[in-house]
Amino acid sequence: MKSAPGVRSIAVFVIGLVALSSVAATSPTCSIPKDRWMDETSLKRELLRQGYLIKTIRVRNECYEIYGLDPFGRRVQILIDPATSQPVEDP
C-alpha cells in the first residue's frame, strides 16, 4: 500500500522541526557579575570537598562548566553557579 503523496515530506518536516526545537531550547545560564565569581582555585577546593574529581573547568553560558567524576566515580559535565559552587538547574 502506497502512502499519499506528500506524507513523507510532512513526516520529514515534522522530524526536522522536533530536532531544531531541541537545539533551540534554552540552556541554563548564570547572571552573576564577574566580580562576585568564586576564583577557580576556590571552586576546585569546594568541589573536591564535596567529593568531585575535577579534570577541566571552562566558562559556558556565564557559568563554570565542570568535567570530571562525581563522588560515586561517574563521569560528569555540570554547569556550576560561579558564586555558590552549586549546580545550575535547567530552566
Explain this structure to me?
It is a single chain. By secondary structure, this protein is an alpha+beta fold. The protein has one domain (7-80). It is 31% helix and 23% strand. It is built from two helices and three strands, in the order H-H-E-E-E. The chain has helices at 7-24, 40-49, and strands spanning 53-60, 63-69, 75-80. A three-stranded antiparallel sheet has the order 1-2-3, with helices on one face. A hairpin with a 5-residue loop joins strand 2 and strand 3. The protein is flat. The N and C termini lie far apart (45 Å). 9% of the residues are buried. Mean pLDDT is 79; it is low at 16-25.
Total DSSP helices = 2
**Oligomeric state:** single chain
Query: What is the H-and-E element order?
Result: HHEEE
Number of domains: 1
Compact summary:
This protein is α+β, with helices and mostly antiparallel strands and 91 residues long.
Features:
PepSY domain-containing protein, alpha+beta, 91 residues, flat, PepSY, three-stranded antiparallel sheet, single chain, 2 helices, signal
Fold blueprint:
Elements (H helix, E strand, L loop, with lengths): L6 H18 L15 H10 L3 E8 L2 E7 L5 E6 L11
Antiparallel strand pairs: 1-2, 2-3
Organism: Rhodoferax saidenbachensis
Pfam family, one: PepSY_2
InterPro entries: PepSY
